[in-house]
Design brief:
alpha+beta; Rossmann fold; Beta-Lactamase; 5-stranded antiparallel sheet; elongated
Amino acid sequence: MVGETNAQEGLDRLERDSVDCVVSDYDMPGTDGLEFLELVRDEYPEMPFILYTGKGSETIASEAISAGVTDYLQKGRGVDQYTVLANRITNAVERRRSLAALQKSEAHLARAQQIAGLGSWTWDIETDVLYWSDQIYRIAGVGPDTWEPTYERFLELVHPDDRDAVTAAVDRTLAGDSPYDIEHRIVRPDGEVRTVQERGELVREEDGEPVAMNGTVQDVTDRVADQRDLKAFREAVEHAGHSIYWTDPDGRIEYVNPAFEESTGYTAAEARGKNPRILKSGAHDETFYADLWETILDGETWEGRVVNERKSGERYVVDQTIAPVTDSSGDIKRFVAVNTDATNLAAPD
């Protein structure tokens, strides 16, 4: 491959072509090899750069290393020097490619952790040095440039009411080999409280001495809030005076509340997996039910008065509301039916 004879031509070549490694002499017209190295580093900081020169000295070698040269090789006699140079080039390029692959992998991991709200940590027990991934800093609401993690400083972030439980879990793992898995709260420096799921496992030396712990922290604040809301909703439904049930998109019953069991005579176990037609009394024709299904499958709420039949065969009347529940894509996930007893009111025509 044809080389270039001066620094500017070399820079033009780097801009124009795909180059894996720069091999430069020290003596060049107008610019020496170290000045050229500085120019290359300004534009291509990760480019492998080998200074291959006949002007060798400890001073030049020291300056080259300080300037960030990848490798330094002094010209010699014979063809063997070119074999050495070729090996140095190959090694420099392979190291750069390996580093690039590692950086790409780490970037993907960091992005995945950010998406999942999951961070990783390593605690050196002897030195009390605690390594956090970037995501844990985000979860904790602190910056890696201003906040140096240690085990004690981590405990300061743990909610005071949860601190004993966390230290007890860590101590149990240190005393044995069982990993710990605990949900607890942290208090960010700005006062915001977050809930995290933390897991940790012990690393021992061959003699059994514990030397480190590895683990993960995941922000589960939203999940815990959703579970709390779901629990409150379920409790409200369980204690509701109205008969409530919901089905999957195909109309199979997935859940009934106690009021449903009381009003229909069917237990939850008997109703689950069945179609609501088990309540069909025969008082309505097929057009009535076709209109009902057309309405809710179109994503709209259906309301009407229905004559149902209990398990015992007794008829009863309800004012029924059926609403479709959709996901973020608009697809129907279930239908929810709420029934108000209207037996003592006028029955539908």
